[in-house]
Amino acid sequence: MTDGKSLLSFVIYLLIAVLGAALGSFFNVVIDRVPRGKSIVNPPSHCTECGKQLPAWQNIPIYSYLAQKGRCKNCGAKIHWHHLVVELVTPLLFLILALLFGVENLAFWKFALMFGFLIPIFFIDAFHQLIPLVLSLPMLGLGLILSFAQSAFRFRDFFLVYFLPALMLFILLYALALAWEKVFKKEGLGGGDVILIPALAVYFGAVHIPFVILLASVLGMIYFLLFVRKANQVFAFGPFLALAGVLWALVGDVLLLSVGFGL
Ligand SMILES: [Zn+2]
């Protein structure tokens, strides 16, 4: 840590870690409140059991949860473990992204933004079997803007690599969901997945998105075989799509390059 350059990158990584933990804390509010239709800004952070508002020093990411042993200081109610996990995982994932891509790379910002949607979606769908449109639609819209930028604002490249695959997936999945409902008289593919898969396509593009869907299906199948006892048990696919999206963003390029399939 002697020259200015390494000091600068140390400061950048430190900033990413601190901002990541703070964002993780915000994602926890999203996970708690969005599926219940509550505002994410009002009221300020409070215990969901006793309603006591949290002073700033009881609202420090990671530290507060550990210092209070996962309980509310006022009433002793248990704080759900997702609070600690999200506050740890978010900065960690952002740091790995920064190390892999470098903060000057647009890919870092694109995937960091995508993670910002996928982390809450993972937990909300796992807990409530629901992918809120207030998350999936902005994920899709902002992804389109960043992909256009990543295509150096060349409309033809953007259209062929990102827009058209996403649109085709949407049409295909929508038709499939409708057909399923007609034949089996119940929802097969969740409505949320019909938006989430095209949204992922917007971030990954035509080459990578088949691998993301394949990985999600493999992860989902493993989970199904290991943990789902009855065939008709409700089982959300969104968490596996979110997990596959995060994993593929980190290893996809390297994997494809290593088999001579680089782009
Ligand atoms: Zn409490």
Helix content: 55-70%
Low-confidence stretches: none
Query: What count of domains describes the coordinates?
Result: 2
Distance between the termini: 35 Å
Shape: globular
Overall pLDDT score: 91
- How many separate helices? 8
Q: Give me the strand/helix succession.
A: HHHHHHHH
Counting helices, strands and paired strands, the structural category is mainly alpha
Rounded to an integer, what's the Rg over CA atoms? 20 Å
Biggest sheet layout: none
Tally of DSSP β-strands:
0
Named once each, the bound ligands are: zinc ion
What share of residues are in beta strands? under 5%
What does this structure look like?
By secondary structure, the chain is mostly helical. The protein has 2 domains: 1-104, no CATH class; 106-263, no CATH class. Helices cover 70% and strands 0% of the residues. It has helices spanning 4-33, 63-67, 82-101, 106-128, 133-150, 155-184, 191-227, 238-258. Helix 1 (4-33) packs parallel to helix 4 and helix 6 (155-184) crosses helix 7 (191-227). The model has no long low-confidence stretch (mean pLDDT 91).
Features of this protein?
globular; mainly alpha; 263 residues; binds zinc ion; single chain; 2 domains; 8 helices
Architecture blueprint of SSEs:
Blueprint: H1 4-33, H2 63-67, H3 82-101, H4 106-128, H5 133-150, H6 155-184, H7 191-227, H8 238-258
Helix pairs in contact: 1-3, 1-4, 3-4, 4-5, 4-8, 5-6, 5-7, 6-7, 7-8
Bound molecules: zinc ion.
Give a short summary of the structure:
By secondary structure, the protein is mainly alpha-helical.
